[in-house]
Design brief:
single chain; mainly alpha; two-stranded antiparallel ribbon; 20 helices
Length: 450
Amino acid sequence: MKIQDVRYHKIPEFPLTEIMQDITRYQRLSSEYGVGDKGYEIFQRMQKEIGVALDAYEKLVKSANDPDEPDDLPGILALRPDGPRKMIDKLPADYPERLRGAFYGRMAGCTLGAALEFQSVDAMKDWAEYSGDDYPLKDYWSRIKDPTAPHYIVGRNLDLTSDHMDAVPPDDDTIYTLLGLLTMEKAGFDFTQQDIAEVWKRYLPLGPEGGENGLRGCWWGERKMLTHLLEGMPLPEAGVYRNPNLQNIAAWTRADSYGYACPGQPERAAALAYRDASANHRRNGVYGSMFMAAAISAAFVVDDPMAAIRIGLTEIPKNCLFAEGVRWALRQNCTNYREAADAVWKVYDGMFNGSALTNALHVVMGLSIGRKDFTRTIGETVAMSGDNDCTGATAGSIVGAVIGLNAIPENWVEPFQGRMHIYLKEHPEYLQLESVCKRFETLAERFIAQ
């Protein structure tokens, strides 16, 4: 698939939102007019008709094939370009330092981006000017909108600001890193998708259906998969049934665990990421996860973040849409977030703002602009907008693995006070960052010995 072959038929979002509001108001109005039961019958008929349309979309997407974009692992491996596959035979002496750089870097980038996630470039810039913060950010936000609103079940928006932080604030993108860790600890490196399902069902809370945004524990395709699993639907159906998020970002936000556990072994990291991602993603959603896992794995043994990115490309199909996009990003010479964001949306106009590809381009271009400067890397990446807690986290993870914890400025690390705030079931509300890093070290030592 090439981007020039993609033809978007844009469906304006505002009229759809307004139509749903009209339906809700008509239902209330019909009740007030004494004909609410008949009004609800209309709503139920509409629900069935929408279900028919969703099933038709699902059937259409599943029937679409592209020889350059297979879903099976052997097919993917056959289409990769040449790559290093395995770069080391033993853990390097600086792995613990680099691991902490990657993990703390992920926590910092996620926290920075989460404050104004999905806000436009101009909205973030205006908020920074109003708050007196540098833009791109050189430290955590000093102010946040709606500060007392809940943030991921156990936190508040205020927790994301520099003066009110006492741990890594809770976030789904840091929780996914822990879920990968738990899966490998419980089932080893030969874990199955059923092992993933059991870990998710046991530890990951959905949060209230229809509740406040901050009370949800997972989103999009992850929420769909977990809901289906809890309803008793088996894999693979649970991951793909009525799931329009097959090529979205979430799979690669789950990839860091596999890079951390497989330093210097990008092929193995990508294979583990494939097993995870393909539970509820397909095609470029899966390739994005394999790419990021391989790039993070490579980042532990190279001295340039862009070298890690190029190695990541060797673990996915050469001619897939995702690889085409990353190669395009590598050819750009953007000097700041504005140039980068404008360039991405000039080429990929119409693509969902939460897609695996557009957000990966933000990561690649942020790393290219920042190089080994941690502050500039996550600041420029987050400033590009999009799903910028995810992009900030992954950019921070990759540059952190290259430079190590000691090269990350203290202002990004000290506010965490050595711990992370989480919402996993059967876990304490806080985990010590150092203990999590030691658990990844244990996995890496086990893996390298195999």
